Amino acid sequence: MLEKNEKIKILNIGWILGFLISYFLFTSILFFILNKNRIFLDLIYFKSILITISLLLTSKLIKQLLK
Fold this sequence. Notes:
This protein is mainly alpha-helical and 67 residues long. It has one domain (4-62). It has two helices and no strands.
């Protein structure tokens, strides 16, 4: 079993990761709107797939650690 402090650290890491991922996604969309380039559209799709996978993995990890 984890102590309460360790659970709080894990949740803080999850919030920081979520903030960084949303920031990168927002900047990608902003670049796409400003440039309207096909390369940026591909980057947004690629980043969104990576973001979904990483969020699923981190949420599973946090759920396992909080048990």
